[in-house]
Fold this sequence. Notes:
With 181 residues, the chain is an alpha/beta fold. It contains nine helices and seven strands.
Amino acid sequence: MNPAVLLIDMQELFLKDILEEHRKLIVSSQLEVLTYCAETDIPVIVVEYKLIVPEKTIECLLDKVQSVPRNRTAIKITDNAMLSGKPNVRRFLRGFDADYLVLMGIYASGCVFSTALTALDKEYKISTSGDLISDDVNSDYVKMYPDNKFPILSDSLRFYKNDGDFFDSHQDLIAHLEAGR
Length: 181
C-alpha cells in the first residue's frame, strides 16, 4: 500500500455551513492525520476550490501541511479533484506512486464523493473515517437520524462503507496505515 492524503475544500466559506461541534472534530482529527503523515512521509495534496472561493485552506491545517515533506496544492474549478486540478491531482499521485487514498474534507456527499468515485474508477483504493469528512448536516438532520453518529448524509456514508475502507475514527485509520507499512 502506497498511501497519499487528499485534503479537500477545507476553506472557511464551506466550513461555515458545518455545525461547530462537527467542525472542531474533523479539524482536530485531520490535524492528527497530518501529524502522522509528517512523521511517516505520507504525501499530502491540499485541494482548494477556486471558481468562486478566493480563499485558502484554513490556516491551522495549512501550517501542519507544511511539516509534511511531500506536500502539494492543487486548485480545482469543479467538484471533482481528480478531474479538474491545476496542477493535476492525478499527476501528483502518479509522482508519489500512490495507490491508496485517504480522503479528508467537506462535503462528504459532494466534492469528496465525486473525487472518490473517480478515484475508484481510476483503480485507486479509497479510505476515510467518520471524523475526517463531513456534510453540512443541520441540527434537524442530527435529530432525525440519531443512530447516524457521523455528520455524513446516509447515502454517502453507505457508499464509503461499501466501496472503500471506512473507519469509525481517524485513529483506526492510522492503525490501518501503520499495519500496511
